[in-house]
Every structure is written in C-alpha cells, then in structure tokens.
Amino acid sequence: MGEVRKLQKKLRQIENLEIKISLSPEERFKISRKAELRSRLAELQLQLSGPQQTLGIVGDGKKEKMKRQVEDAPEALPSQTPPASKILKGEEESKAQATPAPAAKQRGRGGETEIGRQRERTEPADVSHHCRESDNERQLRQEEAEFTSLKSSWEKAKFRLRLLEGHNDIVTCVVAIDNLVVSGSRDTTVKVWHVPTATEHKNLGGHTGGVTCLSAPPPEYCKRLARSLSVSDKERFILSGSADCYVKIWALNIGQCVKSIYTFNAVTALCFVPEEDGYIITGSDGGKVQAWSWHTFQNCQSINAHQEAVTSIQSQGPLVFSGSAEGGVSVWENRCSDRDPLRLLHHWSGQVTGCGGEGGRLTLSPRGDRVFLAHGRAWLKILHWRTGTMSRLTNHSSITGVTDCVHQTGGLLIGSCYDLANGESSLNLFSLPQCRYLTSLTWPDAPRILCFAAWTTGSGDHRWVTGGRDLIVWEQLPNSGKQK
C-alpha cells in the first residue's frame, strides 16, 4: 500500500509538471517516466484487493460509467443522492451542506408533518398551515419530477466532437465569442477559430512566453475602445496574459495587437470587471494581484495578495475572486476608483479551504455566496465565502481522480475529471443550484481537460469547447438514442 501511495504521488507530481508553462530538462525527464510508473501502479493494484484499494472500480477491472461504479461500491450513498458521490471519511456533514439531497428534504418534510399533527390536536381550525404543507409537498414533487426529467435528458445526450488542429503544445485557456473560439497555448500563440467550419480564423503571434489566460470584455466596453482607436464599433477585443509579463489586447477582426501592458511579473490569471469604466485584474506567478484601468490602461493598484502563483481570477458583479496555488482564496470588492479600487472583503487560507499543495493549481467559479473550487483532487470543494465554511462535492469515483477545472453554464455545474492511474478523462455534470449529479460524458482516449468555455445556440442547444492536449468543440445534437 505504501508503494501505491508513492506512485500515486509521483504521478500527480508529473501531471502537475505537464501543465506548467515552461519545463526544464530535468522536468521533461520526469514526465518521460509517466507510462512506466502508470504500468507499475496498475500491476500493484491488480495484486491488491481491487475494490478496497481503488474505490469505484468493480472487481473484474472493467471500465464502467461513473454511476455504475459507485452504485456497485459498498459505501455508495442512497439512490436519492448524486450517484457520482461517495461518502469519504469525515465527509458526511460536508456532503449534507454541499448537496441537499432529496432524502434530507424528505426528513424535513416528515418533521413538518409531525408538527402539523401536534397542531391538529391543539389548533384544529388552522387550515392555512395544512395548505402551506400541501404547497411544500407539491413543490418538492415538482422539483423532483423536473430533476428526473433533466437527468434523463442528459443521460441520453449526444454530442458531435470536432478537433481544432493548429497548436503545437498544450492549450491552457479558451473563451467563446459569438461563433468564434479563442484559445491560448503554451506555444506562445493566441488562435481564433471559426466554429461552424472548425477552421483557424486568425493566428495572433506576439507573446514570447506561454499564454496562460484569456478574457473577453463585454460588447459595450469593446465599443468604447473601438471608438478611441477609430476602428469599427463592431470590433471585438480579447485580452491575453503570458509568462512574458505582458497583457495584450487583440482586435479580432483585424487580427492585430492594439495595446500591450507590461506588468513586471509573469501573468498567470486575469479577468475583466465590467463596472464603471471597466478594469483589468491580473494575477502573477509571485502571488500579486493588480488592477488596470480600461480607460487609461494605467496600473491602479498592486497587492501582494497570495503566497504563491495566482492561478484563477473571476468576477461576479462588483466582486472579484482570486485563487492561488497554495490553496488560498481572496474575495475583493471593486469600489470603482481610479486609485486602489480593490478592497479585501475576505481571505481564506489553504488551511481553511483544504486546497493546494504539490505544485498544483486552483481554479474557481463563484455563484452567489458560494465559490466552487477545483484543485487537483477527486472532489470539488465549495467555499461559503462569507463564513469560511467548506463542503465537498465528489467528482470522481476513483481515489486517483483529479479535477482540473470547474465551470457553470445554463443551469449546469461542470467539472473535468482525469484519472492518474489509467489516463481516462471525462466531464461530470451536476444540476444547479442543488449540485445533484446528472451524468458523465466521455469517449475512448479522451484527453485531459484543462480549460473549458461554453455558450448556447439560438435553438438552446449547448456548445462547449475544451482545451488541454487537444482543442475540441462539442456540439449538442437532438436528444435521441444513446450518449455519444
């Protein structure tokens, strides 16, 4: 068992090295041993008692759906809770917070029924209480019926997958704009793709280091910049950050860089905050968070916010959320000022979030008072950022699974999933806001997914783009037949 854990740790370290923005010769040699270590791990797992050592893998070793794996496992939760979720040690209370399962609702409803009976003895004329109780029951039944229908729909979902070929290194970031997909890569380029034809539209070369992050300002802010540059007000712009310490602003239609901002630090994360005149927020490899005016492109603020590299920055209204490699999460309020616009509201360390470590990265996605965190483990974390309380959402049926990115779109929470032991990759879908498991989407030899973007078509169908070793567009097809 000790050797298994050592091999798992080495594989995790190798996978973290593979997504670094630059590699030394020594690191490349370590990566070259991945197949050897994975083979040895598989041998040891076969020698050990499979189901006890590799959670979620059935005894004959055959690969099955995440749902089936967990249902066959002895510690699986009742069927009312997400099939993707297993009770881990010490996790019961956090699971109750993360996914308010129908079973819990049923217990609550039973309690209300008992109270109703007591009142019936003392207050037989209280008709309004019974009406409310009946309304609650109807609402619960309606919610359960809607979830059942949604789950059935996604279990039958089919997607057409199209490979976008052009990058010669891993794709680190993607965004979607209208019918265009923009991707950034460790190969230093930003590429623009025309989705309907799956062809490369523009190759934006200008960075001298790997591209780490992208952000798309809203159309109204693009119009302001277009007017100042005397170009068409239909021009769309994209922001790219790189290890070369630059943020570049690209005009997509003309395919040119219209502005470069030197940040003095390798840029590892960025986002656009559409408040007042607009702000660009960047994060660096040294943990610094900086604010830049969209009006003047001057630096408004520099803060030593984190101990290690800032790996994710997202905005939600006037709030900005930053996450770092050591697992810390900071919540900022944008005060819409020309000087020091960001005010720290909360900071939760890696000891609180339980994230970070082993050279990994943390990605986040805020939703109201919650922030979903992906940090290279088999589960998603949920930080209730006002109170600092944490809960878990299991995202993988194997202890060797890792989660690289998390995204919200159209009432869905989507977590990527990659198994260190066998190299299998998938996307796990959960319903929002309850975070109940819907289904897992995968195909043979699916590559590791490091970044994700999504939009919907005019007919309401989903289109996604995933990046990593490959850049792939997912186009949802009419709901019929089995999942493709």
From TrEMBL:
Keywords, alphabetical: Repeat, WD repeat
SMART domains linked to this entry: WD40
Keyword Nucleotide-binding belongs to the record: no
UniProt biased composition (Basic and acidic residues): 60-71, 109-144
Listed Low complexity bias regions: 96-105
SUPFAM superfamilies associated with the record: WD40 repeat-like (SSF50978)
A Pfam family reported for this protein in Swiss-Prot or TrEMBL: WD40
Protein name: F-box/WD repeat-containing protein 7
Organism: Collichthys lucidus
